Amino acid sequence: MNAVVKLTGYEKTTELLTTIATVPSGLVSFAKTVAGVPETDPDVAAMYPLTVPQAEAIAAEASLALDPDRFDYCLEAIAEGGRSQAWKV
Length: 89
Description:
Layout: E1 3-11, E2 17-22, H1 28-35, E3 48-49, H2 52-62, E4 71-79
Antiparallel strand pairs: 1-2, 1-4, 3-4
């Protein structure tokens, strides 16, 4: 499986996945550190909910736009052409 690390946004009112942005490969290590991904999860197999400051730090480094008033953000790996981990629940 080829998975790509993404900054995902879930709409606060509906909890639906609404926005997905790819974290550039050169920033994945930074994003994992900011999100608190443990070394035991090198492939980001789990979904990591982010605080607003965490999401803002990742977005700033990756030049991504955020709307923290509208979305809750997570760091997760999504298979190319696949679905978010949230689809499993």
